[in-house]
Amino acid sequence: MWPLLLLSILTFACIIDRLIFWTDLRRKSKKIPSLILENYKNNSNQFINFLKKKNNNPYSEMLINIFNMNFSNEKDFEKGLEINLINMNKEFNKYGNIFNLTISISPLLGLLGTVLGLMNSFSFIDLGSVGTNTKEVTGGISEALISTAYGLIIAIFTVSFLSYFNSCKRNEIIDLREFGVKFQILFFNKSPK
């Protein structure tokens, strides 16, 4: 039962971290892309400085990284965009391995607790006397089954949040890609040919 408790605490802390991250990012994502595009339209000379001031979001980070690649044409820009989206995907998937491990291992730890609890309960059975240790045996069995239920609850809870986080990640990658294409069109239409 202790490993399940430790695993659930670790997973819960990771879930809280990701909830804060995605809530904050979704709040920023409503304003930042249009602000960046508007700033580039109005003042492209000071644009990099503007991005560096606003670098605590994936949109600014992506453009800063692309500009650091020194692209010379639209193809290079597109490659830079794809590389940055792959890197953002890694960042968005933070704690994904912990969540997958929790989903896989918590039911197994629960079953292990059940087996060990049942073995302990059966040690109370005295074959020579009938009905003398029923409270110990039934109490041990119910305690053993609790660990299975706890393991399943942890897995179900984690699967629910992982599904939500994957949905947030997919939506943010789509928004970043759309933003990148809009900026690409704006940049190459504004640049002298």
Task: Explain how this protein is built.
With 193 residues, the chain is an all-alpha fold. The chain has a domain at 1-10 and 72-184. The chain is built from seven helices and no strands. The chain starts with a helix and ends with a helix. The model has no long low-confidence stretch (mean pLDDT 87).
> Unreliable segments (pLDDT under 50, ≥5 consecutive)?
none
Structural class: mainly alpha
Helix content: over 70%
Helix/strand order: HHHHHHH
Tell me the total number of β-strands: 0
Share of β-strand residues: under 5%
Q: What summary fits the major beta sheet?
A: none
Cα separation of the termini: 68 Å
Average pLDDT score: 87
Instruction: Provide a count of the helices.
Output: 7
- Rg of Cα set: 27 Å
Shape: rod-shaped
Short structural description:
By secondary structure, the protein is mainly alpha-helical. It has a domain at 1-10 and 72-184. It is built from 7 helices and no strands.
